[in-house]
Amino acid sequence: MATLDISFKPERAHLRKPKAGAFTGRIVPQSVSGRYRRLKWTAVIVCLAVYYILPFIRWSRGPGQPDQAVLVDFERGRLYFFFVEIWPQEVYYLTGVLVLATLVLVLVNSLAGRVWCGYFCPQTVWTDLFLLVERLVEGDRRARLKKHGAPITPQRVLEIGTKHGLWILIAMGTGGAFVLYFADAPSLIRDFVTGQASAIAYAWVGILTASTYTLAGFAREQVCTWMCPWPRLQGAIWDPEALIVNYRDYRGEPRASAKKAAELKARNKPAGDCVDCLQCVTVCPIGIDIREGPNFACINCGLCVDACDTTMGKLGRPRGLIDYEAWSNIERGWRGEPPQPRMIRPKTIALALSIVALLALMSVSLGMRGDAKIVVIHDRNPIAVTLSDGRTRNGYAVRLYNKTGLERSFALAVSGLENAEVEVVGSDARVTVAPDATYELRMLVKASTEDRLPLQFTATDVASGRSVTAQDVFVPAGGQ
Ligand code: SF4
Ligand code: SF4
Hints:
With 480 residues, this protein is of the alpha+beta class. 41% of the residues lie in helices and 17% in strands. It contains 16 helices and 14 strands. The strands form 4 sheets. Strands 6, 7, 8, 10 and 12 form a 5-stranded antiparallel beta sheet that branches. Strand 2 (78-81) and strand 3 form a beta hairpin. The longest helix is centred in the last third of the chain and has 22 residues, at 346-367. The structure holds iron/sulfur cluster (SF4) (2 copies). One iron/sulfur cluster binds at residues 245, 284, 286, 288, 290, 298-304.
């Protein structure tokens, strides 16, 4: 685990102990333009495009099957993702996806800190849209600060009403639109608009709209700092080699206004490039002063980089006083050493290899899944029964899965025990399973043996002749 090693020397008094918090007062971020702001808008557009397009992509799965490419179907108990169909019994694949997501997040964190939070997290995307509306309706930071606490006028009432009306519409169109992933999207929209949708659909749109309105309109940076577990995790997996937004204090300190800096330099006294204009602080959506050192609440959005680059540009000084830079290089800069880019290192290689290995494992496992399956569970109590004729009887719960859209007949057989009698309770050894369904039955195996023997249960598709098997054991009386 990396620890945050900051040299607290007197000349670096601007640094503060690492913290997972920011300003506690109301944060009214100022607009900013620059390359990272443009990158953020691009990320917003791409994220929203993917979010809205995905539920409308069709994927043919045969007659009677939903043709929505990405769908969580509670009614059938299925999760559809293009060619992948996950049944409730295969939910362990979701565990694999969660482990994969965790590995990717840790790798991204090792490369570029909380860059997911700053560019792609839905909370960031929604908040960017809400802030845009706020600026368009109420003005930029200065105008908004003036209006806070000012007497209410009809004009102000109109502004507040317009802002909240637009916020609610955006909340419904963003958070509320999540329901499109849980039903056939085109039909749901038609039914929703014409009042034909189910009460549960209206209720969920209401809940998601309300939560988005609250989180993006009011909670904002508090979600990123206090509600999300990521800042706390960040403390544990913080990586001094990651490209995170940092202030080049060795270049910026001691800070002074442009005029004062010129005077100091004329007197051969040290003066840094930071003119203490506070632009980097006023644009920060979290309210951080990045000059105080790395802050676990920083979402790595780069807006302070844009703000400082603008200031440096106006002063004719080189850009990059605040920049995406590894903390280890800031320390090197302070010691007068050249920076060393270390994106590729054992940790990032190991994480990348783990991701590739897990992806390959899951792909092979998914690729090897058949369109039928048999699962056998041995009776637990009693595990074996002695019959009046001296033989032993074992009972098994058997479940057959038909993962196709066609009705199928399966012939059941048990092998591994000579002279065993096999009984399918209430049926013969051939059962019919409805399309895209499971069939549960009970099987009894009776035999004379004193050995614990392996059994193989086979279900053979009568039409195709293909078989699926499951292993279990025959337990003799008194052998449990
Ligand atoms: S300190 Fe800079 S990078 Fe971090 S959240 Fe604030 S503006 Fe974004
Ligand atoms: S924007 Fe740049 S110059 Fe202005 S206070 Fe921040 S670091 Fe200093």
